[in-house]
C-alpha cells in the first residue's frame, strides 16, 4: 500500500513551495505531495515508458509547480495570467496582446479540437507560453489540421500540462498577476529560475514594437459568409479606415471589412501627419500587449489625430485614448481575460457578455470634463468604454470582435460606421 501511494506521488505533478526568502541561498525546498523529491530531477523517472514531470513553472513568489511539457522546450520568462474562456484557445494563442505573458486556461481540458489555419488572429503566436491542466490525447474536429502540441512546437512556444491550474488561479486572484519562468532545462536550479523571475518585469516595457507590422498594407477579408451573423450591419458604404497596428487581431479587420470599409493597416510608429494626409473617414487604434505607459510615442500619435477624424479605440487603443485625453491608466490586480465578462452599456442600459483581455484600465476620475463613461464592467465596476462626442471619439476596453467570445458587442462596429457617416454627411 505504501509503495503504491509512493509511486502515485511520483507520477503525479508535485508542487514544491519555496519560502519567500529574499536570499536564494537560504531557500529550503519542501514538498506538498511527494516527500522524497528534493532535487530537480527525480531519479529513474526518465526511463519510464510514459511521460513524467519534465518541466517547472517557478513563480516570483517562490512557489514551484512541476508539470509535463508539450510544444517547445527551453526556458522562458513571462507574466502569468488566467483566461476563463471555455473555447477558442487558438484565437487566444494568436492574440498579439498576450506578448510577454503565459496564458493559463482555467478550462481544464484543452486541445480536443486541435488547430486549423482559419482561426488565427495574427500570423504568429506572440505569447510566452501556455499553462493547462490537461491536454487532450486525441483531436476531433472536421477543421482540425494538426495537434495543439505540434502547432506550438513549430512556433517555438512552450506549453505545460498536468499542473494544478485551479491552485495557480486562486493564487493569482489572491496575490495579483505574478511573473514566472517556465523551464524544461534540468541543468537550471530552482534558485536560478526564481532569480530570473524576480529580475524581470512587464511594467514599463514597450511590447508593441515587437508585434506591430513593419509596413502598411491593405486588408480586404470579410468575415467568412459561413460564419457571418450580423447581416443588418452591412451598409455597403466604403468608408476608408486607417487601423493602427499595436498588435491588431484579424477579426477587428474582418468585422470592419464586413461593414464595407476599405482598410489600411499601418505600423504603430506611423506618423499622424501621414495618416491625416490620406484623409481617412476614421482611424482605429487597435488592441496590443503590455503597459500603455511604456509607449508615449503612441499616445502622442493619438493626441495628434484626436478631433480631426472620428476614432475608435479597442483595448490598448482605448487605454492610449484615455491617456491622450489627459487621463491615467493603472495596472489591475489580475485583470480580465475571458469570454464571460458582463458589461453594462450605460447609454442603452443593456448588459453585454463580452470577451476581455487586459491587465490595465483607465481611471475614469482622471478624465477631463466632457468625456463620458459609456460602459462599465459589472464584475468590478471598472471603466469598460468611453466617448467624447465633441471630438467623435469612442472606445472600448474589451473586444467587440470577440474571437473568441460572445458576439453581444459586435454592434460597436456599426456605431463606428454611424460616427463616420455623421461626420461625412456634415462635412
Ligand atoms: N488586449 C489588449 O489590447 C491588452 C491591453 C493592455 N496590453 C493590457 O494588458 O491591459
What is the fold's blueprint, element by element?
Layout: H1 2-11, E1 15-17, E2 30-31, E3 55-59, E4 63-71, E5 75-83, H2 89-93, E6 101-105, E7 109-110, E8 129-131, E9 134-135, H3 148-154, E10 158-161, H4 165-175, E11 178-183, H5 190-198, E12 217-219, E13 240-245, H6 250-258, E14 262-267, H7 272-277, E15 282-285, H8 296-305, E16 311-314, H9 316-324, E17 328-345, E18 351-363, E19 372-377, E20 383-388, E21 393-396, H10 411-426
Parallel strand pairs: 5-6, 6-8, 7-9, 8-10, 13-14, 13-15, 15-16, 16-21
Antiparallel strand pairs: 1-2, 1-4, 3-4, 3-11, 4-10, 5-11, 12-14, 17-18, 17-19, 19-20, 20-21
Helix pairs in contact: 8-9
Glutamine binds next to strand 18.
Task: Please tell me about this protein's structure.
- Residues 1-40 have low confidence and may be disordered.
- The protein has ten helices and 21 strands.
- Helix 8 (296-305) packs across helix 9 (316-324).
- It is an alpha/beta fold.
- The structure holds glutamine.
- Glutamine binds next to strand 18.
Amino acid at each position: 500500500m505504501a509503495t503504491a501511494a509512493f509511486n502515485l506521488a511520483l507520477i503525479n505533478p508535485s508542487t514544491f513551495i519555496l519560502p519567500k526568502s529574499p536570499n536564494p541561498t537560504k531557500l529550503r525546498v519542501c514538498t506538498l505531495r511527494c516527500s522524497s523529491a528534493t532535487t530537480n530531477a527525480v531519479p529513474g523517472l526518465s526511463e519510464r515508458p510514459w511521460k513524467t514531470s519534465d518541466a517547472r513553472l517557478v513563480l516570483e513568489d517562490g512557489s514551484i509547480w512541476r508539470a509535463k511539457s508539450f510544444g517547445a522546450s527551453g526556458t522562458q520568462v513571462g507574466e502569468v495570467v488566467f483566461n476563463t474562456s471555455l473555447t477558442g484557445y487558438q484565437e487566444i494563442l494568436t492574440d498579439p496582446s498576450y506578448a510577454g505573458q503565459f496564458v493559463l486556461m482555467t478550462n481544464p481540458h484543452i486541445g480536443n479540437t486541435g488547430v486549423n489555419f482559419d482561426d488565427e488572429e495574427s500570423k504568429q503566436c506572440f505569447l510566452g507560453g501556455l499553462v493547462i491542466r490537461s491536454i487532450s490525447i486525441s483531436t476531433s474536429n472536421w477543421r482540425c489540421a494538426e495537434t495543439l502540441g505540434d502547432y506550438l512546437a513549430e512556433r517555438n512556444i512552450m506549453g505545460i500540462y498536468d499542473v494544478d491550474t485551479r491552485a495557480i488561479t486562486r493564487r493569482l486572484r489572491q496575490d495579483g498577476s505574478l511573473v514566472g519562468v517556465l523551464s524544461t532545462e534540468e541543468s537550471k536550479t530552482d534558485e536560478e529560475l526564481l532569480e530570473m523571475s524576480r529580475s524581470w518585469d512587464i511594467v514599463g516595457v514597450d511590447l508593441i514594437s515587437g508585434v506591430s507590422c513593419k509596413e502598411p498594407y491593405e486588408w480586404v477579408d470579410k468575415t467568412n459568409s459561413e460564419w457571418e451573423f450580423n447581416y443588418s450591419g452591412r451598409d455597403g458604404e466604403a468608408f476608408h479606415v486607417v487601423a493602427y497596428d499595436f498588435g491588431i487581431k484579424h477579426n477587428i479587420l474582418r468585422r470592419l471589412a464586413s461593414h464595407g470599409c476599405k482598410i489600411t493597416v499601418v505600423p504603430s510608429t506611423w506618423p499622424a501627419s501621414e495618416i491625416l494626409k490620406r484623409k481617412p473617414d476614421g482611424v482605429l487604434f487597435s488592441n496590443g500587449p503590455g503597459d500603455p505607459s511604456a509607449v508615449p510615442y503612441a499616445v502622442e500619435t493619438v493626441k495628434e489625430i484626436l478631433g480631426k477624424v472620428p476614432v475608435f479605440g479597442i483595448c490598448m487603443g482605448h487605454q492610449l485614448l484615455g491617456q491622450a485625453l489627459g487621463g491615467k491608466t493603472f495596472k489591475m490586480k489580475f485583470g480580465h481575460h475571458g469570454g464571460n465578462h458582463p458589461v453594462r452599456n450605460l447609454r442603452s442600459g443593456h448588459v453585454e457578455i463580452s470577451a476581455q483581455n487586459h491587465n490595465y484600465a483607465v481611471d475614469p476620475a482622471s478624465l477631463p470634463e466632457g468625456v463620458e463613461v459609456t460602459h462599465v464592467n459589472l464584475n468590478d465596476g471598472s471603466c469598460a468604454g468611453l466617448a467624447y462626442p465633441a471630438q467623435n471619439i469612442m472606445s472600448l476596453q474589451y473586444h467587440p470582435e470577440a474571437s473568441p467570445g460572445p458576439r453581444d458587442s459586435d454592434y460597436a462596429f456599426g456605431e463606428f460606421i454611424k460616427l463616420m457617416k455623421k461626420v461625412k454627411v456634415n462635412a
